[in-house]
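Structure ticket #2291
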Amino acid sequence: MKAIKKILVPTDLSEFSLAAVEYAASLAEMYGAKIYMLYVTDGEPNLAFPTVDRHSETIPRDSEGEAKKQLHHFVYGNVIQVRNIVEIVRVGKAQVEIPRFATEAGIDLIVMATHGRTGFAHVFMGSVAEKVVRTSSVPVMIIKPRELQSVLVTEEDIEEDLHLKG
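Resolution: structure written out below.
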């Protein structure tokens, strides 16, 4: 089995994403691995003044800086007990940036949480997680948050979801 030295934990800064941190922390402790917490922002700022030009050169830089602050507060507010964490912010689409970063950084394992919003596919994985599993060349471990563990998917749910898409 390949040694696990670098673990990527993508986060959207939600409580659901903390489920993945628990597993990643356990694996990191077992293998002496480093955890990379990745937050992907779309780069679109929440502007209080609609007259501000969204295409100004400073807007993306300010947005990325704000994202770094948010990630830092999330990590140190929720996972302070975990050592060896590297905080990374990328701008773009999460389903593209997560596999891209994993490849570029030589990540050994991606550990991410599901979100289970709507439909069978989303209950099963979440749209971003689903796309990462399909496109990543790095192994992906999907963790279902405790809050969603009692959600049962029936055959009717699957048929309904397939019917809605077809």
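Closing remark: Strands lie at 6-11, 34-41, 85-91, 109-113, 140-143.
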